[in-house]
Amino acid sequence: MSKRRIDIMDPFIKKKREERGVPVTVTNTQPVMNSSINPLTGLPFTQKYNELYRKRITLPVFEYRSDFMRLLHEHQCIVLVGETGSGKTTQIPQWCVEYARSIGKKGVCCTQPRRVAAMSVAQRVSEEMDVALGQEVGYSIRFEDCSSAKTILKYMTDGMLLREGMSDPMLDAYQCILLDEAHERTLATDILMGVLKEVIKQRTDLKLVIMSATLDAGKFQQYFDNAPLMNVPGRTHPVEIFYTPEPERDYLEAAIRTVIQIHMCEEISGDILLFLTGQEEIEVACKRIKREIDNLGPEVGELKCIPLYSTLPPNLQQRIFEDPPPNKPNGAIGRKVVVSTNIAETSLTIDGVVFVIDPGFAKQKVYNPRIRVESLLVSPISKASAQQRAGRAGRTRPGKCFRLYTEKAYKNEMQDNTYPEILRSNLGSVVLQLKKLGIDDLVHFDFMDPPAPETLMRALELLNYLAALDDDGNLTDLGAVMAEFPLDPQLAKMLIASCNHNCSNEILSITAMLSVPQCFVRPNEAKKAADDAKMRFAHIDGDHLTLLNVYHAFKQ
User: Fold this and answer.
1) Candidates 3.40.50.20, 3.40.50.720, 3.30.750.24, 3.40.50.300; CATH matching 11-232
2) Are 68 and 60 in contact (CB under 8 A)?
3) Which tens digit of pLDDT belongs to each residue from 378-424?
């Protein structure tokens, strides 16, 4: 199958075509800067808008604006590859808004795999468009909707768009839909791609933009019937990569040691980005780094340690954009170190990072259909992820990446790409959502990577057992209600059944407790104290009632 790559049109060719009378579609290639009035609000542009505009026009993606607008007019689906930091997440949706407003009143939505990204990008874009967050630009994530009837550009998690599809299968509210970070291949993104592939056949006015940060976009192109591919290079500087000579026994220990060594020994200024696997590890690392630096005395430069993970409150997430501490009078360099999950791999760009420490691990969901158990395991990352992490160091100037594994492990042991989530997940909720969306023939549903038949069979068995599907595999009335809850099918059924047993209050509390991160922490240095504290709430009938005890104690 041939692949189309869009080359930048030479202005000289364009001129000759016009002379020959060949029509050339040229859109307004500059955002509204020549006018002093904001067309969205009717108010004059602020000083901040002008400052941000001057920054926007320096982004690599900005040079490709007219080409993108031409493609958007000519094609229904576009695959866009833009390296992290090229500006695609903030700029492309704004151009889609201009397109949507020029032809009608429908809005634009841009999906993100992570809640943090949806919120922080919406905040940034509302400032760039000079509007209030929650008005013309908003976001929608689980448990929080910051949008209004005025909203024309909405950032949301991929799961939220899937939920919208349940009540509006044709997604009629939108003129353009952008799937960002498609290379992450989350469960919801994969299902959305399958659903939208069908929707665009029936809604010829809908525009679909698939945005990816990695270059394996040929697969997306092929999947969307040979859609045109647009390539936007990022502005990256060379990154020097260092490996460890021997495998590290304790990557957390090695990572903390490397942070201290960089801070003490590197003579150039620049911030540090350390990748770890989860909240608990990150909190431990931040405490340890602070303690080590304090022990080194007042002569050492200040090191500000900032954690970043998805359940961190939004105001604390914004700390990653703070300036590093100033240098000391003796010349000791002040730096900040951001200790993050793989959220900082592609979703968020942190300027000022010159040193990246990559232990080579991330938490991944793994499902065993035989024993029907889904676990979150610390697993080695893929080569594609390792390259993304290294690239974070070369955003503003030449950088260094310290990989805490051997070069041999990188070349021989790591997979090329991350295994799509759909191939390693329990598909109970997926099947329920697809049935609710009206897709009955799951065997022939156009998945980009079809899951194993056994996994699908297990999901159908489970839903039949829960009475969400009848024996012919059709959605029951109970199943339709279960699909409305953003929960695992078992929890949804439990919640609905609780009404008949007069225990809805308690079941609601337990379900809520199971839907948020674990409330018990067990730090390495205080395991016994943590276990004793948990025993105070323990219930003889198991974990669910233990959680209920915790909730009641919290309320009192």
Assistant:
1) 3.40.50.300
2) no
3) 999 999 999 999 989 988 889 999 999 999 999 999 999 888 999 99
Give phi and psi for 520, each to the nearest 5: -95, 130
Q: What whole-number distance in Å separates Cα of residue 230 and Cα of residue 79?
A: 6
Contact between 514 and 547 under an 8 Å Cβ cutoff? The reply is yes
Helix 115-128 vs helix 47-56: crossing angle, to nearest 10: 110
Which DSSP string do the residues of 405-416 spell out, in sequence order? Answer: S-HHIIIIIS-S
∠ Cα 54 60 63 (to 5°): 80
Q: Give the pairing of strands 153-157 and 107-112.
A: parallel
What token pair was written down for 409? Answer: 């492990």
Half-sphere exposure for 387 (CA within 13 Å, toward CB): 15
3: Cβ contacts below 8 Å, ≥ 6 apart: 218, 221, 222, 226, 229
- Are the C-beta atoms of residues 211 and 87 closer than 8 Å to each other? no
pTM: 0.85
Q: What percent of the chain shows pLDDT beyond 70?
A: 94
Contacts of 195 by beta carbon, 8 Å cutoff, 6+ apart = 162, 165, 437, 439
- Tracing tokens 């080359």 back to the chain, one arrives at 7
CA 156 → CA 34, 61, 313, 350, 499, distances in Å? 31, 22, 17, 21, 32
Of 239-243, 334-338, 388-392, least confident by mean pLDDT is 388-392
Query: Residue 441's pLDDT band (boundaries 50, 70, 90)?
Result: confident
* Mean of the per-residue pLDDT values of the chain: 89
Cross-strand bridge partners of residue 377: 364
Residue-wise pLDDT for 34-45, tens only, equals: 578 999 999 999
**Closest by CA position to 361, among listed 384, 341, 334:** 341
Residues 6+ apart with CB under 8 A from 128: 49, 52, 53, 56, 90, 94
Percent of the chain at pLDDT above 90?
A: 73
- Beta partners for 475? 469
Sequence letter at residue 297:
G
Residue intervals in the chain for CATH 3.40.50.300? 11-232, 239-421
Tokens of 281: 């590890």
Contact 345, 275 (CB under 8 A): yes
Q: Which of 357, 126, 472 is nearest to 110 (CA)?
A: 126
- The per-type count for the chain, helices as H runs and strands as E runs, is 21, 16
Which CATH number applies to 239-421? 3.40.50.300
Q: How far is CA 68 from CA 11, 62, 152, 219, 230, in A?
A: 15, 10, 20, 20, 8
